[in-house]
Write a structure and sequence with these properties.
The chain is an alpha+beta fold and 110 residues long. It contains three helices and four strands. The chain has helices spanning 2-8, 34-41, 45-71; strands spanning 14-20, 23-29, 75-83, 88-95. Strands 1-2-4-3 form a four-stranded antiparallel β-sheet, with helices on one face. It is elongated.
């Protein structure tokens, strides 16, 4: 995802999206940077959590705008979390209406 590259310096190594009705789930693998892996290895999960919260807050408006463009739906809520071992993140978008397969206005994110 280009938004991750812009904010974190690199994107995930693998990403996939699943949707049903008005729920869009994005699963990201290999999201941690070298610095984040170092914090996790040093047992600094609290510091890592604070960093992730700040990063998500900084990216939130752009992530929402991208999903709204791709789906043609508004985003009512965005929830996100990350796990260190394995290195997986998840973003859950609640849309203002159900989306149909192929019903988005934009193209796939890259």
């Amino acid at each position: 995802m280009g938004i991750y590259l812009k904010y974190a310096g690199r994107g995930p190594t693998k990403a996939r999206a699943l949707f049903r009705d008005n729920v869009l789930v994005v699963i990201l693998e290999g999201v941690m940077t070298t610095a984040e892996r170092s914090l996790a290895a040093a047992g600094r999960e609290h510091a890592l959590g604070v960093f992730h919260e700040g990063l998500r807050a900084a990216m939130e408006a752009e992530l929402i705008a991208a999903v709204e463009e791709l789906t043609g739906s508004g985003v009512s809520a965005l929830l996100a979390d990350a796990h260190t071992d394995p290195d997986i993140g998840v973003e859950l978008f609640i849309l203002d209406r159900p989306i149909e397969p192929g019903g988005g206005r934009g193209r796939a994110a890259g």
